[in-house]
């Protein structure tokens, strides 16, 4: 078994998905500096740093490498290189994930919830969260084909609860259409874009999506979801049960060590719009970008902590933005952590050991140690660990959500009846 009591390199597992960057991008670069041969004909989508059993990283020391132990207790940290839209998706929470894993283990391969945070390292376009009632009315009625589909489905009302439930109900009605039902409406809506007004941003994104997935039900998602354009350094927290899709750009992503995804559009993979609609958080809430809480201003840089919600215990991410020749003593933590370099290069020193680190590499930091990080150029590093400031609400969340599942009769696909989940399911979800 790999030794975890010393600094050593973390060799990532590389994922070649169709939406990745062909032969290049941050994932291919990470693969290359970590000893992989690069195939220019393959798409390099994700580099995984962590112990998830689907694709565990390896710890490398003195020329030997061994799988990271499942007891490592670290989040899953990734590079993303996105050149085509990812699926419209959400991730289960602490209550639904164990239920799905026990019921459909071949699809949901672990019992973990999957809150996540994405940090842009290039301009990054994202769709996330249901738009406001007024925005949906404006955008939907700008296209006659969509307005005809909705008909009187979306009515003018000032009732806050009704407005919120109406938006999610209409979204689910659309997402539950078969491809045969959705395609002609999408095709007609696309032909109406040039004559539409007031939806310039939606028009641009819809064309982008339709180019990748012609006439797919997900092409109209910009009418229903918030579209955000992140600049490098922007971070976005995606809570469980929040509908989202990453469209293009490069990023660092951190999450609980889970790979559970429920999809409903823009994908050749398994779709389950019925299950997605059962779990969907219907709350209208504008996504908030953050650069983290500034922990320390240095003479030669800045340290900020990206801890999205005070009591999300699954992870926290510390960003070190350093000038050349900066020296930082890393805080001692009671848990293991990983240090990822996204730009530049430097070195890490602990006791009598020293390791160089360059863009695309990651170093294992043992618990209860305080290594020294030195930058040898302008550089950017991310330290990932479980959130020691967090409050563990897993058991409470499981109890609340299990009650909803038992009463809601959740089914795997095929059921065209959209269940209305009890508000109790959302009471203990993290709130900002």
Number of helices: 10
- Compute the CA-based radius of gyration: 22 Å
Secondary structure class reads: alpha+beta
**Percent of residues in helical segments?**
10-25%
User: Low-confidence segments, ≥5 residues, pLDDT <50?
Assistant: 390-432
On the 0-100 scale, what is the average pLDDT? Answer: 85
Description:
The chain has 432 residues and is an alpha+beta fold. The protein is built from ten helices and 26 strands. The protein has helices at 25-33, 96-103, 133-140, 144-150, 160-175, 179-191, 200-212, 221-224, 273-279, 394-408; strands spanning 8-11, 13-15, 21-22, 43-44, 46-49, 58-61, 64-67, 76-82, 88-90, 116-120, 124-130, 225-230, 235-238, 244-255, 262-265, 289-290, 293-298, 301-306, 316-322, 327-329, 337-343, 345-350, 353-358, 362-365, 372-375, 379-385. It has a nine-stranded antiparallel beta sheet, with no helix packed on it. A hairpin with a 2-residue loop joins strand 22 (345-350) and strand 23. Helix 4 (144-150) runs antiparallel to helix 6.
Characteristic key phrases:
432 residues; alpha+beta; nine-stranded antiparallel beta sheet; 10 helices; disordered C terminus
């Amino acid at each position: 078994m790999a030794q975890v009591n010393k600094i050593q390199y973390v060799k990532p597992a590389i994922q070649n998905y169709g939406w990745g960057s062909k032969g290049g991008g941050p994932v291919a670069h990470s693969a290359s500096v970590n000893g992989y041969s690069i195939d220019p004909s393959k798409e390099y989508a994700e580099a995984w740093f962590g112990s998830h059993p689907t694709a565990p990283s390896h710890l490398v020391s003195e020329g030997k490498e061994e799988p990271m132990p499942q007891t490592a207790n670290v989040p899953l940290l990734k590079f993303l290189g996105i050149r085509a839209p990812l699926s419209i998706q959400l991730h289960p929470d602490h209550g639904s994930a164990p239920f799905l894993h026990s019921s459909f283990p071949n699809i949901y391969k672990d019992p973990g919830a999957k809150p996540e945070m994405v940090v842009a390292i290039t301009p990054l376009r994202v769709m996330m969260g249901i738009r406001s009632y007024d925005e949906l009315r404006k955008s939907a009625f700008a296209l006659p084909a969509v307005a005809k589909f909705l008909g009187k489905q979306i009515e003018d009302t000032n009732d806050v609860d009704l407005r919120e439930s109406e938006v999610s109900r209409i979204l689910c009605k659309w997402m539950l259409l078969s491809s045969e039902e959705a395609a002609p409406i999408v095709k007609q809506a696309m032909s109406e874009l040039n004559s539409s007004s007031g939806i310039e941003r939606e028009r641009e994104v819809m064309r982008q999506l339709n180019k990748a997935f012609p006439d797919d039900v997900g092409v109209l998602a910009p009418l229903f979801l918030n579209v955000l354009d992140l600049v490098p350094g922007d971070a976005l927290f995606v809570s469980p049960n929040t509908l989202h899709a990453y469209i293009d750009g490069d990023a660092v992503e951190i999450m609980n060590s889970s790979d559970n995804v429920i999809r409903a559009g823009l994908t050749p993979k398994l779709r389950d719009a019925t299950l997605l609609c059962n779990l969907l958080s219907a709350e209208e809430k504008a996504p908030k970008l953050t650069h983290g809480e500034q922990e320390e201003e240095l003479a030669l840089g800045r340290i900020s902590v990206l801890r999205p919600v005070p009591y999300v215990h699954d992870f926290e991410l510390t960003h070190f933005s350093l000038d050349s020749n900066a020296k930082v003593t890393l805080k001692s933590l009671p848990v293991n952590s990983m240090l990822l370099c996204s730009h530049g290069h430097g070195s890490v020193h602990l006791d009598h050991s020293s390791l160089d680190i360059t863009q695309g590499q990651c170093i294992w930091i043992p618990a209860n140690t305080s290594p020294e990080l030195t930058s040898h150029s302008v550089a950017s590093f991310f330290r990932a660990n479980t959130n020691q400031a967090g409050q563990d609400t897993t058991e409470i969340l499981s109890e609340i959500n299990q009650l909803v599942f038992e009463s809601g009769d959740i089914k795997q696909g095929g059921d065209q009846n959209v269940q209305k989940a009890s508000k109790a399911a959302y009471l203990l979800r993290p709130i900002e």
